[in-house]
UniProtKB/TrEMBL annotation:
GO terms for molecular function: carbohydrate binding. Residues 176-222 are annotated as: Disordered. Keywords: Lectin. Residues 213-222 have a biased composition (Low complexity). This is Galectin. Residues 37-172 form the Galectin domain. Residues 188-209 have a biased composition (Gly residues). Gene3D superfamilies: 2.60.120.200. Signal peptide: none annotated. Coiled coil: none annotated.
Length: 222
């Protein structure tokens, strides 16, 4: 059993959403609707690694419903209390919100960017970790660059929430560990995860277009 799986009992208490038992992503693709679940990485995300998720936004997403807001959150540190990258869009509003959280307590100033998700439309979004930034791609096109503003060298998990269905999640490793090969396992019969979670508050709205700065902190996960 891997080191990360041994940590699961203590990690569950630190997270908003439960860890998916027995599921890890490392240089491979997993199929299933993993909304409202925390998915562990097989090893901490490294510079050059890219995580991609593919799915479809609901036709009934409502920005007034907190649990409809589309959110992608990375978790780091031994107890998963750090959030070096968080992305949110309250579809159909045409602005994305980016932020980071330190030790489950302090949100930095929000940054605003272009829309990434559209009501009722399929999506394929990627986040690539570089030495100084998180690069956000929509179907292969770079749409936003978020500066690393807190510790990001120990990313171990992520979760995705909101009014959408996830088809699959994949990590493309820049330097796969010896003996590992990027593979795409077969599709399970019924997928995994569930879509019954609830939101946990949300931060400021009203982007300024482009890659602009917000004037207030966002506290949309805790």
């Amino acid at each position: 059993m891997s080191f990360f799986l041994l940590l699961l009992p203590s990690l569950v208490n630190s997270l908003v959403y439960p860890v998916v038992p027995g599921v890890q992503i490392m240089c491979n693709r997993v199929y299933g609707n993993y909304r409202y679940n925390t998915v562990m990485f097989g090893r901490p995300l490294q510079i050059g690694d890219t995580i991609t998720w593919n799915g479809t936004v609901s036709t009934t997403a409502n920005p007034a419903e907190v649990n409809h807001n589309l959110k992608f959150t990375t978790w780091g540190g031994p107890t998963l209390l750090q959030v070096p990258f968080h992305m949110r869009q309250d579809v159909p509003r045409q602005v994305s919100i980016f932020n980071n959280l330190v030790y489950n307590a302090v949100w930095f100033r929000a940054l605003y960017g272009p829309p990434i998700f559209q009501l009722g439309q399929p999506f394929q979004v990627s986040v690539k970790l570089t030495a100084n930034t998180f690069e956000v791609y929509s179907r292969g096109a770079l749409v936003f660059t978020f500066p690393i503003r807190s510790k990001a060298d120990d990313l171990r998990a992520f979760h995705f929430t909101g009014a959408a269905t996830i088809n699959w999640i994949e990590i493309q490793c820049a330097n796969p560990p010896p003996g590992t090969v990027t593979r795409r396992p077969g599709r399970p019969g019924n997928g995994n995860g569930n879509g019954n979670g609830n939101g946990n508050g949300h931060g400021g709205h009203g982007g300024h277009g482009g890659h602009s700065h917000g004037s207030s902190s966002e506290s949309c996960e805790h």
